[in-house]
Amino acid sequence: MAEVRLVGLRKSFGRTEVIHGIDLRVEDGEFVVFVGPSGCGKSTLLRLISGLEEATSGEIWIGGREVSQVPPAKRGVSMVFQSYALYPHMNVYRNIAFGLSLAGASRADLDARVRAVAEKLQIAELLERRPRELSGGQRQRVAIARAIVREPQVFLFDEPLSNLDAGLRADTRVEIARMHDELRATMIYVTHDQVEAMTLADRMVLLNDGRVEQVGPPAELYRQPRNLFVAGFLGSPRMNLLEVQSGEGGLLLPGGGSIAHSGELPRGQLTLGLRSEDLHPTSGEGVLRGEVTLVEELGETRLVHLRIGDGQSVIFRHRELPGPRPGDRIALDADPERALLFDGNGERL
Amino acid sequence: MAAAAHDSLTRARVRTAWLFLAPMLFVLAIVALWPLARTLLLSLTDASLGAAGTARFVGFENYLVKDDGAWYGLLADPLWWLALRNTLTFAFVSVAAEVVLGTLIALILNARFRFRGLMRAAVLVPWAIPTVVSAKMWAWMLHDQFGIVNDLLLRLGLIGAPLAWLADADLALWSVIAVDVWKTTPFVALLVLAALQMLPEDCYEAARVDGIHPAKVFFFVTLPLIRPALIVAVIFRFLDAMRVFDLVYVMTGNADATLTLSVHARQMLVDFQDAGSGSAASVLLFVVIALLSVLCLLAMRGEVLGRRQ
Amino acid sequence: MMALARALAFRLLVAVLLVYLLFPFYYAVLTSMKGGSAIFSVDYWPRQIDFSNYARIFSEQPFALNILNSVLVAFAVVALSLLLGLTAAFSLGRIRFRGRSALLFAVLAVSMFPQVAVLSGMFELVRAFGLFNSLLSLVFSYMIFTLPFTIWVLTSFMRELPREIEEAAIMDGAGPWTLIVRIFLPLLWPAMVTTGLLAFIVAWNEFLFALTFILSNEQRTVPVAIALITGGSEFELPWGGIMAASVTVTLPLIALVLVFQRRLVAGLTAGAVKG
């Protein structure tokens, strides 16, 4: 097991730079998730670590060794691919054993290791099958078995769940988490799915346009986003962002409400961020008032869209029964502790 | 440590690429480039195929030279011009017929009917038969005395007396063309069929719903859509037909009426052992085909650009 | 009524085309089974079944040897083109490097070479290597036809293989040669069968080089042997023998083509459409 350290890592394809100098440290045994919108460079970053792409400049350290000029197979990393990338012409046994046999493992050693891994991942009875005879979930396990059997220092996952259907995806997610607990291995995981990212990660790395926007535990990114991009990317529904005016002792909200705010604030226009679960209906005046335009029923809760004037609207989570109906007028209270403020450049204050 | 250029892995991969290409490049160089270069060189000499080593450099004399007020060389030889005319006629007519007939067969193969499997297999038969064999088969069928074609036409009353299909100078070229059409139409049909099977189904459903006549559908929907495939097929076939040798040589030998550029060049080279003029004739054929290829490429590019606008 | 007439017309068209496509070969078979003077009468239906023509081409000529020659040449050509084509296709299909498309274009250009344009140069080369009148001269010279399309078809199939499988193998420690032999070769075998078959057919059918580089009857390949079959005397018609020989070498070919028809069509169109 090993730590991974990236220093000033850059990557260009032709003249376009897609990774703009990334510094990052992944601790030994840590589960780190790279997340971000498509095209943000998260997969490229993973491929740089694996060696499938070569960095234009910068250093990659794995377990105290600089590996940026080391061939992929010798970096001590294993990779699980989005499409599983099983060898279609080999049975499960040979799929798992291929890397070991190329590395020159003895027959007995190889057999013992393949069977042990197959046992662990409950695919022992599938060893003679071809990949096309397996279900999506089984293929996924074989792909993971193939990664584990080489006993790498670092596991790399490239969107491994995106080819599974929703139910299986949740199950496999839990299983990957359990596997991490068991192996205590360093794992780097790429996904565009924030639920996967939040549930699996010890720490998340949110990337945008080839740069790191924020690194930290999921709850920290969710509660204390460093800027508007992070705030907007995480959470469903998206965080409500309102144009507000800061004035004497507080913030003036659209529709005339206001929130008291202690501490120094720049004057002028700011952006206020409120998550849907931090807004509550009130029978009093509230800070926001408006007319219900849409109700999305989710079962245990419902999302209510409220038009609050100035052409702005908010979404809040409503729990009690009966729910409001379109056309109802509602007043909302906001949790001032939870409110986030961003300046004109989108940085959190 | 990190200051070094970061491309050793990429460079190793590119090195591998060239390493794996090397054997193929080496073989192509000795079977294609070297002989072509030698042919070019020989065409500028008076070498003879039998006695190598006595060749003398003669410049462009094999192509064209003025001596005592008269022009000599291939380009002044009416036979070469005849061969060029025959070859062009052969290429244009056979390719045109193949494309029309091939499209018809492809349309039939694309329809659903009971004997489609049989038809599809039957189409492959002429293609599978070696050219020499089909030349012989047809030469026998077109035999002036005992040929079945004459017999059939006589029985049907279409001709009054047996025709010498391959010996008659007015008929020979057309006979050879007909055989080439029979032999090569399947290839065109398969290409067109592949294009037809990639066409979107919904266009046709829309046309059927609107009650448009099938002929109109063909000319206004199908034809424009398979046009690129047709153009590719035409170019391939045309450049191929310009090189025709086996069929003509086996059916009619070196006869003037069907003399093509390839047959002519081989005759000078092998039968007359005249490596100089023979090579020059080869080079001229190469130049003609290269020019036509460039023209085709330009036409294709124009087509692509035209479509984009 | 209109629909019925249309259906009838369609059937008639299909029938006419079937006769057009198949009759010549049928007639060759029919002729090959005519012995003696039957050759002088035109028949539309088989009247006799006489295999003496078949017996004669094997007894009076080295036709068995000719077939063996053709088989040897064709197999050697297939093996060599596939080997060279596969390694080249790996480079051209899976690795990005400067000059790749220029190279593919050059290979395509070679396939446009007229055969006679290299004839005199090739003749010299064959003689210089001491290969004149040897089957090796054919194996060697046929590369000019088979290599370009083998490379093109295999490259186009090679490109379609998923990138992640190659990357998984690289992560597993496979070098280029392991990658080709243990990953790509097993995945490409349908394409290999197709291109191999096409190369086989080309080598089996080639005429001009075989006519020029081979002198003796014993070294000849089938097409030249057939083209040069003559009657015992000036007045004897050799057509029975010619047709017997033609049918003998064509039947296996037709069988092969029909068995592999789907693969062949895919290979033909892959090579052509992507050009």
Overview in brief:
Chain A is an alpha+beta fold. Chain A has helices at residues 42-50, 92-102, 107-120, 136-149, 166-183, 194-200, 218-223, 228-233, and strands at 4-13, 16-26, 31-35, 57-62, 65-66, 77-80, 154-158, 186-191, 203-208, 211-216, 240-247, 250-252, 258-260, 268-274, 279-282, 288-297, 302-309, 312-318, 329-334, 340-342.
List keywords for this structure.
heterotrimer; A: about 350 residues; alpha+beta; Rossmann fold; OB fold (Dihydrolipoamide Acetyltransferase, E2P); 2 domains; 6-stranded mixed beta sheet; 5-stranded antiparallel beta sheet; 8 helices; about 35% strand; B: about 300 residues; mainly alpha; MetI-like fold; two-stranded antiparallel ribbon; globular
Provide structural commentary:
The complex is a heterotrimer of chains A (349), B (309) and C (275). With 349 residues, chain A is of the alpha+beta class. Chain A folds into 2 domains: 4-233, 3-Layer(aba) Sandwich (Rossmann fold), CATH 3.40.50; 240-342, Nucleic acid-binding proteins (OB fold (Dihydrolipoamide Acetyltransferase, E2P)), CATH 2.40.50.140. Chain A has helices at residues 42-50, 92-102, 107-120, 136-149, 166-183, 194-200, 218-223, 228-233; strands spanning 4-13, 16-26, 31-35, 57-62, 65-66, 77-80, 154-158, 186-191, 203-208, 211-216, 240-247, 250-252, 258-260, 268-274, 279-282, 288-297, 302-309, 312-318, 329-334, 340-342. The longest helix of chain A has 18 residues, at 166-183. The mean pLDDT of chain A is 90. Chain B has 309 residues and is mainly α. Chain B has 2 domains: 8-71, no CATH class; 77-308, MetI-like (MetI-like fold), CATH 1.10.3720. Chain B has helices at residues 8-42, 78-110, 116-128, 131-141, 148-155, 172-196, 201-209, 214-241, 246-252, 261-271, 275-308, and strands at residues 65-67, 70-72. Chain B has a two-stranded antiparallel ribbon. In chain B, helix 1 (8-42) crosses helix 11 (275-308), helix 2 runs parallel beside helix 6 (172-196) and helix 3 (116-128) crosses helix 6. The two termini of chain C are 46 Å apart. Chain C contains 12 helices and no strands. In chain C, 49% of the residues are buried. By secondary structure, chain C is mainly α. Chain C has helices spanning 2-32, 52-60, 63-94, 100-111, 119-128, 135-160, 163-171, 176-205, 208-213, 222-227, 239-259, 261-273. In chain C, helix 3 (63-94) packs parallel to helix 6 (135-160) and helix 6 crosses helix 12 (261-273). Chain C folds into 2 domains: 1-61 and 229-249, no CATH class; 62-226, MetI-like (MetI-like fold, Orthogonal Bundle). The radius of gyration of chain C is 23 Å and the shape is globular. At the A-C interface, strand 6 and helix 2 of A face helix 7 and helix 8 of C.
